[in-house]
Amino acid sequence: MRDIILIGAPMDSGKRRQGCLMGPDAYRTAGLTEALTNLGYRLRDWGNLTPAEHPQDDPAGRIYKHHETVGWTNRLWRAADEAMAKGLPIFLGGDHALSLGSVAGVNAYATRQNQPQFLLWLDAHTDYHTPETTDSGNLHGTPVGYVTGRKGFGGFPKIERPIPQENVCILGLRSVDVAEREAMQETEIAAYDMRAIDETGIAAPLAQFLAKVAKAKGALHVSLDVDFLDPMIAPAVGTTVPGGATIREAHLVMEMICDSGLMTSLDLVELNPFLDERGRTAQTMVDLAASALGRRVFDRPTRAFN
């Protein structure tokens, strides 16, 4: 059984609505360490990182905190690469811009191991923008574009071997702007919106993707955004989009990932405790992480929030 390495990334530089910097400690408070230790894992908590040194951002700049996000990317890239040699890293966010560094770092490690890297993106959004195409200027909408090699990431570290588009699967889409939709249509990324999931169920596309990872003997990074879930069950996110995955669908996804034995790294992102209700979103994310790492329904405790 691989060691679990917790890496906190209290970053809020990927978007303008603040609060995600409290996310890493909220996961710890919600019992993430205890949940995974009870499953038999040995945990090492590397604490909360800080961004690498970077130039000061222009408050009037079109791209929100570009330099700070580059600093975070550099720091997380190095931490991810190092952690992969020592265990299974879980990156505690922090907004989704942390995946610019976490995914690039695990991919760099896989490249040296001559192993193909795969990416499962559980999110309401494609996050396929670049700093040049984003209208909002928020860099949490760019990680998939970055790690698959889109141009327009000046200042960010260069990815020598981008993740092939066909090695990426996005589940749970509900909010895709026109520019992203047009760009995505030109790719080989497997992308499933909630209508597709409603029509076929969530298990079928996931099983197909996991079989592809297994056949290639690939490394699998899973990036779980709070907004993958319906906001009725996970309100603590600044990008709420109605109609997300149910708690049953989300646990099924995580249990299928666990059954596959393929996951090599994990992001838990976009938790904004300032928007939570008695910690229930943090607890839900902890429970989903536990499902991905071996907890089953008979092990799941009853929770009370009143």
Report on this model:
The chain has 306 residues and is of the alpha/beta class. It has one domain (4-299): Ureohydrolase domain (Arginase, Chain A, 3-Layer(aba) Sandwich). Helix content is 35%, strand content 16%. It contains ten helices and eight strands. The protein has helices at residues 23-29, 32-37, 66-84, 99-112, 143-147, 178-184, 194-200, 203-216, 247-260, 280-292; strands at residues 4-9, 43-48, 88-93, 117-122, 168-173, 190-193, 219-225, 263-269. An eight-stranded parallel sheet has the order 2-1-3-8-7-4-5-6, with helices on both faces. Strand 7 (219-225), helix 9 (247-260) and strand 8 form a beta-alpha-beta unit. Helix 3 (66-84) runs parallel beside helix 4 (99-112) and helix 9 runs parallel beside helix 10. The termini are far apart. The mean pLDDT is 95.
Characteristics:
Arginase, Chain A; 10 helices; 16% strand; eight-stranded parallel beta sheet; single chain
What's the name of the CATH homologous superfamily? Ureohydrolase domain
Radius of gyration: 18 Å
Order of helices and strands: EHHEHEHEHEHEHHEHEH
Number of strands: 8
Number of helices: 10
Strand line-up of the largest beta sheet: 2-1-3-8-7-4-5-6
Derived from helix and strand composition plus strand pairing, the structural class reads alpha/beta
Please state the average pLDDT score: 95
Largest sheet: 8 strands, parallel
Broad shape: globular
Highest CATH level, the class: Alpha Beta
The CATH architecture classification is: 3-Layer(aba) Sandwich
